[in-house]
Amino acid sequence: MNDESTEKPKFRRVAELSSLGLMLPSSIAVGLFFGYQLDKLFNSHPWMLLIFLLLGIASGFISLFRGLKKYSKDL
Amino acid sequence: MELEHNLAIVDLFNRAFGKPLAAFFGLFGIHVHDPNHFVPDYIVMSLIVAVLLILIFSLATRKIQVIPSSGQSVLELIVQAFESQLTEIVGEEGRKFLPLVATVGIFIFAANLIGLVPGMMSPTSKLNVTVACALVVFFYYHWQGIKSQGPGRYLKHFFGPIPALAPLMLPIEIISHFSRIVSLSVRLFGNIFAEELLIVVMLSIIPFFLPLPFMAIAIFTSLIQAFVFVLLSCIYIAGAVAHEEEHS
Q1: Searching chain A, which residue's CA lies closest to the CA of residue B226?
Q2: Inter-chain contact A59–B179, Cβ cutoff 8 Å?
Q3: What is the DSSP annotation of B39-75?
Q4: What is the mean pLDDT of residues B91-99?
Q5: Cβ separation of B176 and A59 shorter than 8 Å?
Q6: Where are the domains of chain B?
Q7: Tell me: the pLDDT tens digits for B142-200?
Q8: Is this complex scored with an ipTM above 0.90?
Q9: Which of A26, B102, B172, B227 could make an S-S bridge to A59, C-beta 3.0–4.6 Å?
Q10: pTM for this structure?
Q11: Which string of DSSP letters, residue by residue, matches chain A?
């Protein structure tokens, strides 16, 4: 297992880790978008935006941690 | 913008097909203002990429032999690369996802590269095309997840491991799934758009030789971005199909 995992997925690891950078901003953007649209729908001006902004930040961090959890074993 | 101008091939396509297509859309009550600029450039270029790929692949696989010819062995190599990715990430049952993953990967790679041909542009340098690719992957992996685990068990993943936290986890999971579309499409679009813009800017400064190193880098970026897209699709499919070990 170790011989394979050191040689082959090095390229893959670079690609996988480079994908983590966009995870946080895109989650926040999606959260903001949902909040904005829900505010328009329910006419509840700042609240949905704020709640979903926080949820977006939380989901960005969770997916970031999930992406990094695989690599914490190697360290 | 000054940098945008119509490509000759797009104009040609519009002159040939613009009026019939406008008439066709007119049947459904959609009025087209300008039939000569009706079909946008990225659709024309996507069609060109698709036709090119279909031609190349059907010509190379017309006579499939046990001892492959040169064209066939190159294509076998490409397909094997995708297959080994899938089996490494998803596992042995990942082979059945090969058609979609390989198609998306080859299409994106060809679409990235065709921008380097003079007189053409990359369809992936428009956000619409990359969002389309990302949406295909998004719906595909959800569908496969539902198919392999059943709707109930698949939806249970969204509620997280602790039942008390389910109302909090549900929106977070939904946001993280939708953010995958955004990050997949924006990454590809941003890289290819930046690469094309850089080449155009360099061309406008000195039209000889200066863009060449950037075009060489562009080949590398095209490969990397197509690879990242395929890799992430494989990871998402693996996460949707995996049985329970993802959330433990």
Answers
A1: A15
A2: yes
A3: S-HHHHHHHHHHHHHHHHHHHHTSS--SS--HHHHHH
A4: 85
A5: yes
A6: 68-247
A7: 999 898 888 888 888 888 778 888 888 888 889 989 999 999 999 999 999 999 899 88
A8: no
A9: B172
A10: 0.85
A11: -HHHHHHTTHHHHHHHHHTSTTHHHHHHHHHHHHHHHHHHHHT-HHHHHHHHHHHHHHHHHHHHHHHHHHHHTT-
Which residue's entry shows tokens 């000889």? B208
Return the structure tokens found at A41: 């729908």
- By Cβ distance, the residue of A15, A27, A62 closest to B231 is A15
Convert the pLDDT of each residue in A3-26 to its tens digit: 444 445 677 777 778 788 888 899
Supply the pLDDT for residue A70.
76
Average predicted confidence (pLDDT) for chain B? 85
Residue-wise over B142-171: b if at least 16 C-beta within 10 A, else e?
eebbeebbeeeebeebebbeeeeeeeebeb
Contact across the interface for B175 and A30, Cβ inside 8 Å: yes
In whole angstroms, give the CA distance from residue A31 to residue B85.
32
Radius of gyration of chain A (CA): 18
Using CB atoms and an 8 Å cut-off, which of residues 105-134 of chain B contact chain A? none
- Answer yes or no: are the C-beta atoms of A47 and A39 closer than 8 Å: yes
